[in-house]
């Protein structure tokens, strides 16, 4: 076998290629203002995509994830507008999200309802709860210090929110690859019967997955509310389908059992570069959606044919690799 | 027209790197029951797939049906010509009615918008069921029927297609004894009507009961075709394995020590009732019985997979309360399931990940993260001691052969250092060499002080490996005996609950030796 | 006959009856013919889409692009209106062209699912982005109102027969037609068959890819008809008008007893599912329940329904695997 690049590394190279291409051919793409712009936009999407990826590795999907984020944002916002400090507000925001995650987790893991149905229901449910609380209005007016989370810099160059994302990239990577929970997540995603027959408490594994996804949604929500200085029911809702697309493009197997943090992050970067580049080129903002959808389908179609091709090749070579 | 309904000669099938069939012959006469036998991997299922049009054979073979060249491109061609195949896992639609299940496939070559005529469908289904003396509501959904009834629906479907040849792949594997007898009667009836049957089974006794002739395959090659009168069980086994395989009954009296494991009045509604069982140190306890006697259900209850079980359980003097498989593993119980590929292993994941799955929590370093070195060393150690081949821990489990897969499952539990190991059909679908290795391994474990309960329906295996035998029947313990005093006939009688079959073509068993049912 | 399925549909019907009784006490308007006609007419689009979605869910797939697809067809209709003469032939033409466009878009989904073997959730997620992105790009998000519509189309929209609006007839026709296809045609039975057991269906000669292709194309076809219904009902073309509706559609189908595991689902069940969601919404408006609580109730009902279904499903499975334990002698 010759040394081959992993799927993720190829995706990383593509991301770099797009970055270089955009820098060369798109005016102002490689300008400091634009670069910092992208750095500020990246974290909120990246966090939700990571959360979605973890759920998809178990063979599930979380359609309620952006409403969990919005609910969490509302929780934090209500605390602040009622005179509580930033820290209690953040804690309440996270608790709100964890409560949602626990609800998803219980129904999925204890009752065993397919995640797509559960989260379809809870998506409508959480949206309803937010609407009932906010009457559909935006909540805004947070302390100045709060806006630092989404808009501030560390040492004057690196956005704080980017550091937060970096922290969660590393944390998710460690949890998935080095922790026993992560190992079980992958094993469960491949074959949940075999894990049950190996003494793994599947419900515990799943519960933690939905809790972790909701935690990432909460962190994303804090960054978003801080950046926009306001929260509404549709906070981050455009990230729902994009996060699934990013996870899948990043190589995560929609049937479960495989998925890498870096793959998803590269996919997030690719989406970010394309969105930003197209904007700068003056393309209509909705064309970005078209391009993202097209990339998703083209890449998977390409995978299908390249798999087919390599399988044919393997059949023609007499000896099989051990 | 020839007297043969089916003539296959010089059939070869080459897969990349493997010659699955090499110049094989199968000739079936009109109105006969023809048994196709051979060990696992002998090429039976490949031959059937060629017959059915799932695989195309290599160039140069002869394949005639009713004396004419059979040009079969896809499965439906075979069916439309008059060949029906009843697969072991059946080809039914649980959500559709009995009538439809019998009728389906008939229109498959027609235009998609062809209108379904429910009346004629029901008429046809009714006629087919009547021929089998079956009285089932045509509108009933198939998922509400028993397995035996479902099988009859498949046979009815074959009749409705006016099949002249019906292939039955291990039809009795999940039937109760009464149902098996009914099936034999149906086969007799088919025979009377001039329909030929190809019967695939591992149960030699059964084959002698129903078949007229045998075709034996070994390692993808044709061994021969024999008349039922010209060969006996022993001779058949010799043809199948190419040598005489005899299992010695375990004659040694085991040195048994104190009570290791005990359950008392174990009950679970719809599964088993009032089970008492004791396992001593130093012995292998075998639980045998027919499929559906509650053996597997009992094992899975001990292991905490089945919930809400009544009764008490002690391991090494400690009373156990187990409500999940996690509890069971923590208390030192290990379970090797029968369905290796779906329950025993995570096939898409590496050997190393499989091997350490139950004990992964114990392989953590100070940072509470998995210590890869310890994990790798441990896996290497078990790969070596169990002789797993190829010895590559990073290989995904689906790349291993059945025997090596089973070794990985056993290794997984050895690494957990269990006090009790329950192993369900330990050598199902494993070749003879690996079988013996696994049997030795079980003995080794017992000698090291691990309690071993072996569930098996292969009597020769039970007799040669165990020290004591429990026979289960319809959810209860029907009898218990020491292996030294055990006798195959008596076990069968207990397992069949005395309601069963007169052992028709029973061959004499020489003293203490039992032939392998392959 | 069909005991299990009927039971499930029966329980949805029972809930509908209970809600009906309660609401008729809460509001005298609820149990009037006019209100029910309004409810049904207002849910024609969801209903037509849910009927198509039923077939897809029976084959244990899903299509999240339906709303975007339908919107894409409505925008095409709006574009076509510029060229169509102002007489009845344009209504006929629209009824020919809109389903055809929808069918082509659906066939694209079907092709990717059946031939390229990309999971349906991923395919339709991709096409959702593509369809809705293109629609917004082309229309710039602008609303087209009825001033540009041919008068004949507007006249068509206002037809009532026996006091019943034309859209309800359209809805009924789609429901009956699809029911007929499912019950009485080879392709319809094949849809149920591959949902029930994919492997068996291959063995009895059912062309799996063709059936998948059919359900997605048919979904697209109905999306085209729903687009006409939507245009006719709102007398306008709103590029954002259906955003997110795919989830309501899926919810209605699931409430109606179709199971994502495949093989289960029926047109009467789906109609009851649509009706249940519809009267709840209507009832809450009549009961002056804060509009914001409606989603809470809907979401809760979906979660409860799918959980109940799953628990039932498991209990039945367990019963089937029971063995006949011998009684003590």
UniProtKB/TrEMBL annotation, chain A:
Transmembrane helix found in the keyword field = yes
Q: Where in the cell is it found?
A: Cell membrane
A Pfam family: BPD_transp_2
UniProt keyword Transport, yes or no? yes
Q: Which residues cross the membrane?
A: 12-30, 42-61, 67-99, 111-133, 153-176, 209-228, 286-305
One GO CC annotation: plasma membrane
- Molecular function, one GO term: transmembrane transporter activity
Give the membrane topology, semicolon-separated if more than one.
Answer: Multi-pass membrane protein
Keywords assigned by UniProt? Cell inner membrane, Cell membrane, Membrane, Sugar transport, Transmembrane, Transmembrane helix, Transport
Q: Which InterPro entries match?
A: ABC_transp_permease
Name of the featured protein: Simple sugar transport system permease protein/ribose transport system permease protein/rhamnose transport system permease protein
Q: Which organism is it from?
A: Salibacterium halotolerans
Specify the taxonomic lineage: Bacteria, Bacillati, Bacillota, Bacilli, Bacillales
TrEMBL record, chain B:
**Pfam families reported for this sequence:** ABC_tran (PF00005)
Where in or outside the cell is it found?
Answer: Cell membrane
Show the SMART domains listed in the entry. AAA
Q: Enumerate the Gene3D superfamilies for this protein.
A: P-loop containing nucleotide triphosphate hydrolases
The segment(s) forming the ABC transporter domain are 6-244, 246-499
* Residue segments, region Disordered: 497-518
**GO CC terms, sorted:** plasma membrane
Q: Bias category Polar residues: which stretches? A: 504-518
Q: For this protein, what is any one GO molecular function term?
A: ATP hydrolysis activity
Q: How does it sit in the membrane?
A: Peripheral membrane protein
Provenance organism:
Salibacterium halotolerans
> What keywords are annotated for this sequence in UniProt?
ATP-binding, Cell membrane, Membrane, Nucleotide-binding, Repeat, Translocase, Transport
Q: What is its main location?
A: membrane
**The name this protein goes by in its record:** Ribose transport system ATP-binding protein/rhamnose transport system ATP-binding protein
Q: Which PROSITE patterns match?
A: ABC_TRANSPORTER_1, ABC_TRANSPORTER_2
* UniProt xrefs under CDD domains: ABC_Carb_Monos_I, ABC_Carb_Monos_II
From TrEMBL, chain C:
Q: Does the keyword Repeat apply?
A: no
Which branch of life, at top level?
Bacteria
Q: Where in the cell is it found?
A: Cell membrane
> What is the recorded membrane topology of this protein?
Multi-pass membrane protein
A Pfam family the protein falls into = BPD_transp_2
Where would you find the membrane-spanning parts of this chain? 12-33, 39-59, 66-84, 90-113, 120-139, 159-182, 211-229, 241-260, 267-286, 292-311
Q: Which InterPro entries match?
A: ABC_transp_permease (IPR001851)
Q: Which GO terms describe its cellular component?
A: plasma membrane
Q: Which UniProt keywords apply?
A: Cell inner membrane, Cell membrane, Membrane, Sugar transport, Transmembrane, Transmembrane helix, Transport
Output the CDD domains linked to this UniProt entry.
Answer: TM_PBP1_transp_AraH_like
Which GO MF term does the entry hold, naming one? transmembrane transporter activity
Q: Does the keyword 4Fe-4S apply?
A: no
Record-given protein name: Simple sugar transport system permease protein/ribose transport system permease protein
Organism whose genome encodes this protein: Salibacterium halotolerans
């Amino acid at each position: 076998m010759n040394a081959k690049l992993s799927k993720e590394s190829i995706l990383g190279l593509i991301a770099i290629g797009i970055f270089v291409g955009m820098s060369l051919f798109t005016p102002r793409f490689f300008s400091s203002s634009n670069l910092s712009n992208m750095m500020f936009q990246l974290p909120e999407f990246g966090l939700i995509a990571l959360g979605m990826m973890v759920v998809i590795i178990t063979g599930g999907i979380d359609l309620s994830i952006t409403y969990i984020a919005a609910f969490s944002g509302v929780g934090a916002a209500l605390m602040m507008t009622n005179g509580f400090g930033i820290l209690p507000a953040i804690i309440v925001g996270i608790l709100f999200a964890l409560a949602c995650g626990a609800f998803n987790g219980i129904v999925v893991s204890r009752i065993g309802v397919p995640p797509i149905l559960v989260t379809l229901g809870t998506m409508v449910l959480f949206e309803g709860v937010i609407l009932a609380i906010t009457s559909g209005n935006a909540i805004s007016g947070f302390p100045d210090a709060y806006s630092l989370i989404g808009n501030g810099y560390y040492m004057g160059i690196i956005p704080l929110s980017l550091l937060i994302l970096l922290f969660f990239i590393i944390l998710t990577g460690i949890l998935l690859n080095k922790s026993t929970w992560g190992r079980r997540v992958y094993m469960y995603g491949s074959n949940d019967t075999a894990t049950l027959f190996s003494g793994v408490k599947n419900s515990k594994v799943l519960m933690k997955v939905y809790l972790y996804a909701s935690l990432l949604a909460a962190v994303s929500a804090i960054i978003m509310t801080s950046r926009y200085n306001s929260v509404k029911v549709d906070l981050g809702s455009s990230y729902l389908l994009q996060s699934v697309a990013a996870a899948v493009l990043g190589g995560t197997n929609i049937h479960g059992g495989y998925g890498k943090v870096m793959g998803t992050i590269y996919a997030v970067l690719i989406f970010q570069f394309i969105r930003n580049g197209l904007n700068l080129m003056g393309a209509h903002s909705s064309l970005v959606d078209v391009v993202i959808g097209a990339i998703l389908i083209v890449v998977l179609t390409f995978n299908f044919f390249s798999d087919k091709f390599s399988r044919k090749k393997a059949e023609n070579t007499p000896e099989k690799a051990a | 027209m020839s007297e043969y309904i089916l003539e296959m000669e010089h059939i070869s099938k080459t897969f990349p790197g493997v010659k699955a069939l090499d110049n094989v012959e199968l000739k079936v006469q009109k109105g006969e029951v023809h048994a196709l036998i051979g060990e696992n991997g002998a090429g039976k299922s490949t031959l059937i797939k060629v017959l059915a049009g799932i695989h195309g054979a290599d160039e140069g073979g002869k394949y005639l049906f009713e004396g004419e060249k059979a040009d079969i491109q896809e499965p439906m061609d075979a069916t439309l010509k008059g060949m029906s195949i009843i697969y072991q896992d059946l080809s039914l639609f649980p959500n559709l009615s009995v009538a439809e299940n019998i009728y389906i496939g008939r229109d498959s070559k027609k235009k998609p918008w062809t209108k379904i005529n429910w009346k004629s469908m029901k008429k046809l289904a009714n006629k087919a069921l009547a021929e089998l003396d079956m009285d089932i509501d045509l509108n009933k959904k198939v998922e509400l029927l028993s397995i035996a009834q479902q099988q009859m629906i498949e046979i009815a479907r074959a009749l409705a297609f006016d099949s002249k040849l019906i292939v039955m792949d291990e039809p009795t594997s999940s039937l109760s004894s009464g149902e098996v007898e009914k099936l034999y009667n149906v086969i007799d009836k088919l025979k009377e009507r001039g329909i030929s049957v190809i019967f695939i089974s591992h149960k030699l006794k059964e084959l002698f009961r129903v078949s007229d002739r045998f075709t034996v395959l070994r390692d993808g090659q044709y061994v021969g075709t024999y008349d039922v009168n010209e060969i006996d069980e022993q001779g058949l086994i010799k043809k199948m394995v190419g040598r005489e395989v005899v299992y010695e009954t375990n004659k040694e009296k085991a040195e048994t020590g104190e009570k290791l494991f005990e359950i008392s009045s174990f009950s679970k509604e719809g599964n088993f009732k009032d089970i008492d069982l004791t396992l001593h140190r130093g012995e292998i306890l075998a639980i045998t019985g027919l499929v559906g006697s509650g053996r597997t259900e009992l094992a899975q209850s001990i292991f905490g997979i089945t919930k809400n079980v009544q009764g008490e359980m002690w391991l090494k003097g400690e009373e156990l309360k187990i409500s999940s498989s996690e509890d069971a593993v923590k208390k030192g119980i290990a379970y090797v399931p029968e369905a290796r590929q779906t329950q025993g292993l995570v096939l898409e994941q590496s050997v190393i990940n499989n091997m350490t799955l139950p004990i992964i929590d114990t392989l953590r370093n100070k940072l509470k993260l998995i210590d890869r070195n310890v994990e790798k060393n441990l896996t290497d150690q078990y790969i070596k001691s169990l002789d797993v081949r190829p010895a590559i821990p990073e290989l995904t489990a689906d790349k291993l052969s059945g025997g090596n897969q089973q070794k990985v499952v056993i290794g997984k539990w050895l690494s957990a250092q269990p006090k009790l190991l329950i192993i369900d059909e330990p050598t199902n679908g494993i070749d003879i060499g690996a079988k013996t290795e696994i049997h030795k391994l079980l003995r080794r474990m017992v000698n090291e002080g691990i309690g071993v309960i072996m569930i098996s329906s292969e009597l020769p295996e039970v007799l040669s490996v165990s020290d004591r035998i429990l026979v289960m029947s319809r959810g209860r313990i029907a009898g218990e005996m020491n292996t030294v005093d055990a006798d195959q006939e008596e076990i069968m009688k207990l397992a069949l609950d005395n309601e069963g079959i007169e052992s028709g073509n029973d061959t004499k068993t020489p003293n203490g030796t039992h032939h392998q049912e392959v | 006959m069909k005991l299990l399925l009927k039971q499930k549909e029966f329980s949805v019907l029972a809930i509908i009856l209970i809600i009906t009784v309660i609401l008729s006490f809460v509001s005298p308007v609820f149990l009037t013919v006019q209100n029910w006609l309004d409810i049904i007419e207002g849910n024609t689009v969801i209903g037509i889409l849910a009927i198509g979605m039923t077939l897809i869910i029976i084959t244990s797939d899903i299509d999240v692009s339906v709303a975007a697809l339908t919107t894409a067809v409505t925008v095409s209709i709006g574009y076509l209106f510029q060229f169509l003469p102002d007489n009845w032939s344009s209504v006929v033409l629209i009824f020919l062209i809109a389903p055809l466009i929808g069918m082509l878009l659906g066939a694209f989904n079907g092709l990717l699912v059946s031939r390229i073997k990309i999971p349906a959730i991923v395919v339709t997620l991709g096409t959702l982005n593509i369809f809705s992105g293109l629609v917004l790009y082309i229309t710039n998000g602008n609303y087209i109102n009825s001033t540009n519509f041919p008068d004949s189309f507007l006249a068509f929209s206002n037809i009532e027969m026996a006091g019943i609006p034309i859209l309800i007839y359209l809805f009924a026709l789609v429901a009956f037609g699809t029911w007929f296809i499912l019950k009485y045609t080879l392709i319809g039975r094949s849809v149920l068959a591959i949902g029930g057991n994919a492997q068996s269906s291959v063995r009895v000669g059912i062309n799996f890819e063709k059936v998948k292709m059919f359900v997605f194309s048919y979904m697209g076809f109905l999306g085209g008809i729903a687009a006409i219904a939507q245009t006719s009902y709102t007398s306008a073309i709103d590029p954002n008008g259906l955003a997110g509706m795919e989830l309501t559609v899926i919810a209605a189908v699931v409430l109606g007893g179709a199971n994502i595991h495949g093989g289960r689902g029926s047109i009467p069940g789906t109609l009851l599912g649509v009706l249940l969601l519809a009267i709840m919404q209507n009832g809450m408006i009549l009961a002056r329940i804060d509009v914001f609580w409606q989603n809470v109730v809907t979401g809760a009902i979906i979660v409860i329904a799918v959980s109940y279904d799953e628990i039932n499903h498991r209990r039945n499975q367990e019963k089937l695997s029971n063995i006949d334990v011998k009684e003590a002698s």
